[in-house]
Amino acid sequence: MEEASARERKRPREGDASEGDARMREVWKRLLEAASGKPRYTYLPIADTLKVPGVRVCLFAVVAEIGAAVHSRGTDFTVTLRIVDESRKAGISATFFADNTALLPCVKSSGDVISLHDVVIQHHGEFCVTFNKKFSSFALFESKVSAECSPYQTSMKCHGRKHDKELLTQMRTWLPNNPLVRMLRQLNHPFYLKDYLYPGRFYAQCHVSELF
């Protein structure tokens, strides 16, 4: 009797399983559409991309934190941003690599909008977005509703699409209701991660990286 009860408790509810399966089918459907050569990017919510690590995806998100550009351990320069959207308000880090700093995203202000194309979701202790300079691309837009819909910076491989304007408008409308972005915009200056690290902590991070 007790064994039967235990099996019943472990058995997933049919409604939850079917809902999860339907969600995954929708994610893969969008990914297949993106890979089928259709003349536009298929953007996914950040939360959905976490279910398909290792696959190239496209994102439309808000820049919540801006890191400082630094020289990587190789020949590249790198910068890390934290991006958010309605599906994942806690955000996710996005790391970019380029041959020189001029090719890295130069975000004017926290709260600006970024579109990312053919980036890869990876998991190294936590999920992160990786920008590959060989095939990924990006575009940056101002957050103001009254601003133009044209990006103020694009990478060389970036090719915008007509429907990007609709997504940009939606993102700009969502911005005022996001408490994190609202707080950062009130600071009235770029948010650099290095400015908010304790000196001892920053030294420890540098020291550990040298060990590897």
TrEMBL record:
<dbReference type="GO" id="GO:0032210">
    <property type="term" value="P:regulation of telomere maintenance via telomerase"/>
</dbReference>
<feature type="region of interest" description="Disordered">
    <location>
        <begin position="1"/>
        <end position="20"/>
    </location>
</feature>
<dbReference type="GO" id="GO:0000783">
    <property type="term" value="C:nuclear telomere cap complex"/>
</dbReference>
<dbReference type="InterPro" id="IPR011564">
    <property type="entry name" value="Telomer_end-bd_POT1/Cdc13"/>
</dbReference>
<dbReference type="GO" id="GO:0098505">
    <property type="term" value="F:G-rich strand telomeric DNA binding"/>
</dbReference>
<protein>
    <recommendedName>
        <fullName>Telomeric single stranded DNA binding POT1/Cdc13 domain-containing protein</fullName>
    </recommendedName>
</protein>
<dbReference type="GO" id="GO:0010521">
    <property type="term" value="F:telomerase inhibitor activity"/>
</dbReference>
<feature type="domain" description="Telomeric single stranded DNA binding POT1/Cdc13">
    <location>
        <begin position="43"/>
        <end position="176"/>
    </location>
</feature>
<keyword id="KW-0238">DNA-binding</keyword>
<dbReference type="InterPro" id="IPR012340">
    <property type="entry name" value="NA-bd_OB-fold"/>
</dbReference>
<dbReference type="InterPro" id="IPR028389">
    <property type="entry name" value="POT1"/>
</dbReference>
<dbReference type="Pfam" id="PF02765">
    <property type="entry name" value="POT1"/>
</dbReference>
<dbReference type="GO" id="GO:0016233">
    <property type="term" value="P:telomere capping"/>
</dbReference>
<keyword id="KW-0158">Chromosome</keyword>
<keyword id="KW-0779">Telomere</keyword>
